[in-house]
Amino acid sequence: MAAGTFSHFALLLFVLSWNSALCSHHEPHMAGGRTTIVHLFEWKWNDIADECEQFLGPYGYGGVQVSPPNENGVVYQPSWNNNVKRPWFERYQPVSYKLITRSGSEMEFRDMVRRCNNAGVRIYVDAVINHMTGDIGAGHGTAGSYFDPSVPKYDGVPYGPDNFNKGDKCPTGSGDIENYNDKIQVRNCRLSGLADLDLGQEYVRNKIAEYMNKLIDYGVAGFRVDAAKHMWPADLSSIYGRLHNLKADVFGDGKKPLIYQEVIDLGGEAIKSDEYVTFGRVTEFRYGMNLGNVIRKNNNQKLKYLRNFGEGWAFQSGNNALSFVDNHDNQRGHGAGGYGSILTHRQSRMYKMAVAFMLAWPYGLTRVMSSFSWPENIVNGKDLNDWIGPPHDGNYNIKSVKKNSDLTCGDGWVCEHRWRQIFNMVKFRNVVLFDAVANWWDNGNNQIAFSRGNKGFLAINNDDHQLNQSLQTGLPEGTYCDVISGNKEGNRCTGRSVQVGSDGRAQIHIDNSAEDPMIALHVQVILFSVYCVHKFH
User: Fold this and answer.
1) Which residues form the signal peptide (predicted)?
2) In the prediction, which pLDDT does 334 show?
């Protein structure tokens, strides 16, 4: 397929993702031309509400993926690792569907959703519906509900032993998944020892739908469905069919919640993402893994190969995909990719290149990560500290996010979404949304540039020598602020500026030793000349 044909085909698929039929669960229902989700991992509800009003709304973010809001088990010095104290993954061990966690109360959650919607920012809930807790001992959850995983029983729902998959459905002696090439094991056996719900039961389906509908009625816009590959597609389809429409006073009549399903499909296992796309999007893990390999130059990968990145690399169709560079799992070496491929905030220079490319490229629904830091301790390829939870006080209450005057965060919160190179590219994506890739240029190696129609332009230099080239930007004549190195403030640039001629060309210079070896321009950061000001009067 010719490059020009491919770019228009990719754009068509991208546009379809924003114009899905009303009966679809693919549409994100973002406000006012917004395009991008940020995962505020382990943030408290009150902090998220403040962030929607003070930063996300004003800076053009479209939505927030929030940590699971339902009651979870309290994991503190479990028998299998006495060092573990209130890990992040306890949020993925449900005890009930009551809305009380370390992130806040039900009232605080509901208020957050209202405030974020009012700020033009949607809320997407991380829904953990495949399972309940693992072997963390009997006890009480974050809302006080009693549970005993050895039975198993969860009084706060309630679920009893008859609501879980048993030996007649799971063929392994351990009861856990032992072979990922056996669909029955993957979907009927325990994932890492977690009590596996029998979603074929009407009672279980109704309990899950009741939980999700409560969140919909509070005003959320959709869900990330955790561990979707471990549930039968027919069971999920049945649950989704029970969901309410979104709140009409916020989203309009007849709108269905967005659903994006965690399906790790790298092509080598029995479960395929194609099984899930008829009723929602899927998380395209190959996107971040392959983009990381290209920017790391693994196996002689080069930026020039990104010319048809997406469907041309045999990824899921863009209108079915959620695209991301890293997530809370694989930045810890879990899930797909691994340390040698996945880029995270720890490799900040390469990471910013990857995120900038993702936000400039018309593929999928984009999500950026907002992390907390932890001290890595990698032994034999595994981080022994991968369990460490969010910043907390002496009683393991999550700390509020400290925000500095320069927009960065402190006290252990990384806040990648507040990095200028990332939030400015979120705005870039909003500006160029429906314009196709054009004016592709590469040097045959690791220098690339392209425009999005006549709305935006990105150039990246990942070579070991400078880029100094006259390039077609596709932009109207004028002086533009580079949004990677700075911002447009009034009628001046705080970073670099680029002059585009009447023919759309500009002399692009990017030193290979630059802190951020990129230039990004779009039509909303053009400087007005005196002539233009007089002309408009």
Assistant:
1) 1-23
2) 87
Catalytic residue among 51, 235, 262, 329: 262
Measuring CA to CA, which residue among 286, 344, 295 is closest to residue 446? 295
pLDDT computed for residue 7 by the predictor: 57
**Each residue of 238-281: pLDDT tens digit?**
999 999 999 999 999 999 999 999 999 999 999 999 999 999 99
Q: What is the mean pLDDT of the chain?
A: 95
| pLDDT > 70 fraction of the chain, expressed in percent and rounded | 94
Q: What are phi and psi of 462, to 5 degrees?
A: -115, 20
Alpha-carbon gap, residue 487 to 495, rounded angstroms? 6
Residues 6+ apart with CB under 8 A from 301: 293, 294
DSSP for residue 164: B
CA–CA gap between residue 238 and residue 260 (Å, rounded): 16
262 as an active site residue: the answer is yes
Strands 258-261 and 492-493: unpaired
Q: Phi and psi (nearest 5°) for 126?
A: -80, 105
226 is catalytic: yes
What is the three-class DSSP state of 252? Answer: coil
Please, which residues have CB within 8 angstroms of residue 299's CB and are 6 or more apart in sequence? Answer: 293
DSSP string for residues in 296-349: HTGGG--GGGGGGTTGGGTPPPGGGEEE-S--TTGGGT-SSS-TTT---GGGHH
Q: Which of 226, 265, 416, 482 is catalytic?
A: 226
Who's near 231: CB < 8 A, 6+ residues apart? 129, 130, 187, 199
Q: 456-461 and 518-522 as β-strands: parallel, antiparallel, unpaired?
A: antiparallel
404-436 confidence digits (pLDDT tens): 999 999 999 999 999 999 999 999 999 999 999
What DSSP character marks residue 89? G
pLDDT of residue 537: 36
Spatial distance between the Cα atoms of 358 and 326, rounded to a whole number of angstroms: 11
DSSP state of 277: G
CA distance 88 to 272: 28
